[in-house]
Amino acid sequence: MAQFVLLMYQPAEGGPAPEDMADEHKRWMAFAQDLKDAGLYRANNGLRGVEAATTVRVRAGEAQVTDGPFAETKEMLAGYWLIEADELDTALEWAGRMPIAEYGSVEVRPVWG
Length: 113
Prior knowledge:
The chain is an alpha+beta fold. The protein has a single domain (about 1-110), classed as Dimeric alpha+beta barrel (Alpha-Beta Plaits). About 25% of the residues lie in helices and about 40% in strands. Strand 3 (about 55-60) and strand 4 form a beta hairpin. The relative contact order is 0.34.
C-alpha cells in the first residue's frame, strides 16, 4: 500500500465560530475513529500558527533565519494526516471527508520513497 499525506490548510481568517468548536471537535474525533476503523490511519499532527514559524534559507553558504512564514498567504498549513491506502482515489475520498475541507482545503500528496 502507498502512503499519502493529507495537508490541511485553514483560512488565515474565518473557519468555525468559537461557539461551534465543541461540535467541530466531535466531527474531528469521528473522522479520526473512522480512519482508524478503516485501517488507513498512520499518524497526524496539528501545527501551531504561522506566528510561531521560523524560516531558514541558505544563500551563498550563509544561513538566514527569519521569524514567520516564507510568504503571506490567505491559507495556512494547519497540520497533516498520514494515511496508507491502495490508491490515490481512496486518499482523495478521505480528504473530502475531513471537516476542514468545508472551510479550508486539503492537499493530497503521495509520500515519496
